Structure prediction request, 689 residues.
Amino acid sequence: MIKFFTISFFILSWASVASQPPILLQETFDNNSNDWTVGDGANYSAKIENGRFILTTLQEDKGRYLTVSPFINPEADFILQASFLQKSGMTDNGIGLLWGREGNQYNAFQFAINGYYKVHTPEKIDSLNKWKPYKKIRGLLEINVVRIEQKNKYVSCYINDVLIISFPSLPFYGRGIGFVNNTKMVLEVDDFIFRHDVKLNLPSSLIGFTNENLGPAVNTISDEVNPKISATGHSLYFGRKLSKENMGGELDEEDIWFSVFENNEWAISKNMGEPINSTYSNNLISVSTDENTMIFTTKDGFGIRERTKIGWTPIQDIGIKFTNEDAFIEGNLSSDGKAILFTVMNADNIAYNPTKIERDIYVSLKSEAGIWSTPINLGKNINTSENEYSPFLAADGKTLYFASRGWPGYGNADIFMSKRLDNTWVNWTEPVNLGAPINTIDFDAYYTVPASGDYAYLSSTHQSIGKSDLFRVKIAQEIKPEPVVLISGHTVNAKSSQAIQADIFFEDLATGKEMGEAISNPTTGEFSIVLPYGVNYGIRAVAKGFLSVNENFNLAEVKAYAEVRKDLFLVPIEVGESIQLKNVFFHQGSIELRDESKPELDRLITILNENQSVSIELAGHTDNVGSASILLALSKQRVKSVKKYLTEKGIASNRIVGKGYGATNPIQKNDTEEHRKMNRRVEFKIIKK
Prediction:
C-alpha cells in the first residue's frame, strides 16, 4: 500500500547547489527563447512582457496550462521550479507546476492563495487529489516560489523553500513540463528552471556558433521542412507544407521547392513544378550528389527520377522491400549512391510495440549488380525505444547525423552525430548531442551538410518566421564529417567539344572495388562527385559510342577538404582516335604491371568485347631519364606486358598491334618529376573500326 505524508523539514532536498542536477532549461522570459505558446484564445491571453510570462484567464473554473517538452528520463532525478505572482482574480483555485504531460493527462503541484495546496494526478490516489490547508502561502501581488524535486524515486514539493508534501514518484504520461492555473485570474510567471540528472554527451566546445535563419527568400509563414543541401552548397531543396503557392494550394500537404545561393545570398525559392510536384503530398527523400537523381517515397517504398534533356523521367520503383507501420518515411541517399538510410516502424525495430509509433533507422545497400539489399537495422548504438528521425549520412560515408527523442537532449527531439566503425552498419560510436544552439527545447531535425562540412542546414520551429523554418549554423570542428574532395566538371566530346551525358564511376584502384557512381547533366554535361580521402581512386566516364575516359586521383595522403575542377573528355570510337590509359602502372624501372592497373585494363577488354570489329595499337612511352636505347626497349617490353594481359583475358592477338616509342613523344617537358610521370604512359589508338 502506498503511503503519503506531509512534513516540514528538508529530508529529501539536495544538500547543496553543487550536488543538484545540471540545468537543462532556464527561462527568465526576457524573450521567448524557448518558444512558449503565446497569443489570444476564446478564454485566455498569453504573452511575454517585461521579463515575465503573463497568463490571463477569463472564465471562472476554466484555466490553461502552458508546457514545453525537453528530454526527460522519468526514472532520473529532476528539479522543477518557478515563481508565481497572482495580480488579480479568483483566489480559491489552483496555480502551480506540472510535469509528465501528454494531452490532458499530467501531474501537478498546485496552490491557491487563500491557503490551500494539492497534488493533481490522473492516478486514483485520494490523498493527493484533495485540497489541504497551508496558511503560509502568500497572497495577491506577492511572489510564491514553487519547487518540485524528484530524487531516489520520491517526489518532494516545496512552497517558498518549505517542504509541503512527499510521495513516491508518479507515472509520466509524456514529456510536457510547465505551469497551470485553474480559474479566472491574471498570473505572472518567472524564473522557470528545469534541472535533470541526465548525462548529455556534448561536444567539448560550442562557443560562438549561432543559428542563422535563411530569411524570407526561403522561409514563409508555412512549414519549411526536410532540407537537402547539394554537395556544392549552392542548391537547397526542401519541402513546403500547406502553402497557397503549392500546386494543390493550401490543401496540398507538401511540395518540393528549391533555392540557389548566388551573390552571397539565397535567391527567392521556386516551386519545382511537374512532374516533381503534384496536388498530393510529395515527399523527397534525397537528391544525389550530382543533382541529377531524386528519390521519393511511394506507396510501395522508394521511387527514383532522373534528369533528362526535357525534364525528369517517370518515377520508377528501385526495389527495396520493407514493411512500414508508420505513415511517414524519412531518408537519405549516400554521396556514393550505394546506400539509402531511412526510418520505418516494423517488427524488426529495436523496441517494437504495435500500439506505439516508434521509428528506427535502417540502411539498404546497393550491390555492384545494382540490386538493393534487405534493410539492415542500425542497431542499439543508434536506435532507441523512442522515435528516430531524418538520418543524413555525410559525404565521408561514415558520419551519421540523425534526430532522436530517445537519447538525452534539450528538447522534443535533438540532433545527434555518430561515426560508423565498420562495414556491418551496426557498429557506431556513442551518439554526440550537437548541443546549443543547434538543439533547442523544440523539435529539431532534418540536418544536412554539404561536402565542405562548414555549415549545417536544419529545420526548426525555434524563433521561426512562421511555423518551422530552415536555418544554417557553422559546425564546430569536433562534430564535422571527415574531409573529402569534391570533384566537379563536365563530360565533353573530345572531338566536337560538345557536352554529352555520361555515367561516371569511381573505384578503389588497390582493390578494384567500385566505390560510387553518378551521372552528368544531359544538357550541360555537368557533374559532381565526392571522394573520401585515404584512397587511390580511378574515375571513368562512360557513354555509348565513346571510349570511356579514365582519370587517377590519389587521395591517400589528403587530410583537408578540397575542391577540384576536372572536365572528362570522351573520345568517339573512330579510326585514328587515341586515348591514354591513365591508370596503368608499372613498378619503377620494371615491365611488371602493378595490381592497380588491372581495373583499367579490364575496362579496355570490355570495350573490345563490345566492339568486335575494332583493332587497336598499343603505344608505350617513357620519360627521358636514361639512355634512349634502354628507354625504347623498356617501352616495347611494357607494351608486350599489356598485350599479354589482354590476350590472356580472351582478346585475339591479331586485334592488337604493339609499339614502343621510348622518350620520343613526350606530352610534357621532362623538367619536373610530375611532368616526367605524365610522360611515362601507355596509350591505345583505334586503327580499325
